[in-house]
Amino acid sequence: MTHGLSADHEDLRATVEKFAHDEVAPVIGGFYERGEFPYGIVAKMGRMGLFGLPFPEEEGGMGGDYFALCLALEELARVDSSVAITLEAGVSLGAMPLHRFGSAEQKARWLPRLCSGEALGAFGLTEPGAGSDAGATSTTARLDDGEWVINGTKSFITNSGTDITALVTVTAVTGERPDGRPEISTIIVPSGTPGFSIGQKYSKVGWNASDTNELVFEDCRVPEANLLGERGRGYAQFLRTLDEGRIAIAALAVGLAQGCVDESVRYAGERAAFGRHIGHYQSIQFTIADMEVRAHTARLAYYDAASRMLAGEPFKRQAAIAKLVASNAAMDNARAATQVFGGYGFMNEYPVGRFYRDAKILEIGEGTSEIQRMLIARDLGLPA
């Protein structure tokens, strides 16, 4: 066991930290206020190889690992979560299903562009009536003359409506199992396919510089070969995808939690009240100390989950623990940082105002906190 990072991981962490502070921090507030997707920043992230971090070189990636992605997400989220979630969703939800389950032809067609950041992929799972209950999927796909005909609506889909979105992988009911349960499969739908349209752009509480849309499929036809993996394995595929994605979301949440510490330490050394910098007061010191404890503990949780995943060990429970602990830390630290800043913490011109708005979704996206508790309980052997 070691408390330190490898030389390669530390170099990556430092590089992304510098990029976040030099390139993202000075401009992201404007994108956030305008609700504008930061294409220039995303392009720079692509040139840095961030979208290809966990993929092998033969697929167009950087030959790194999933932990490298998590380190990058943490450093980005210390400055801004919109940019971090664009990377997380592009890799964990957009490209990773193709890497895990795609055919050789599918990988060759899509992964080089996704790994370079030239294009983004999205994962169409959630529906208006099927969020945590993904088994209630109502989107359908039927075979007709060698093509899948898809009908349905998907909700809250990240990276689905940008000018560089290349595809969405969609879960759909493709039949019925012998026990009467729906057969769910995943199908690749390229952007621009007739019958596939981008619905409303959401007005969100946070993540305002990221792309989130509703998707509509009306007799959308794609080749039968666009089936991703085995027919009827879509449910299992999305479970694997979300297990890994929870570690990445935990890393993002740790970044937000640590960013709250960073900003509070800086502000406590600048802001004076009653004749002294507020950092001299024990109440502020204890508040920031508790924030650091939460960020540090959550970091250990996602490090542990990531190490188990990379070692090929079971990690479902540890991923759920990491996601639960880290999202709690992000929410608690955002609230505490806003209190340290006082009235200025309520202003969007200060990062903690954005952190406060961005933190809540971390308790919801890629599995709510209640779902994480359920997964932990079941893994402990408690009744399903």
UniProtKB/TrEMBL annotation:
Co-factor(s): FAD
Swiss-Prot/TrEMBL keywords: FAD, Flavoprotein, Oxidoreductase
Domain Acyl-CoA oxidase/dehydrogenase middle: 122-220
Domain Acyl-CoA dehydrogenase/oxidase N-terminal: start-end pairs: 7-118
The keyword Oxidoreductase appears for this protein: yes
InterPro entries according to UniProt: Acyl-CoA_DH_CS (IPR006089), Acyl-CoA_Oxase/DH_mid-dom (IPR006091), Acyl-CoA_Oxase/DH_mid-dom_sf (IPR046373), AcylCo_DH-like_C (IPR036250), AcylCo_DH/oxidase_C (IPR009075), AcylCoA_DH/ox_N (IPR013786), AcylCoA_DH/ox_N_sf (IPR037069), AcylCoA_DH/oxidase_NM_dom_sf (IPR009100)
Domain Acyl-CoA dehydrogenase/oxidase C-terminal: 232-380
Family assignment from sequence similarity: Belongs to the acyl-CoA dehydrogenase family.
Protein name in the entry: Acyl-CoA dehydrogenase family protein
Organism: Nocardiopsis sediminis
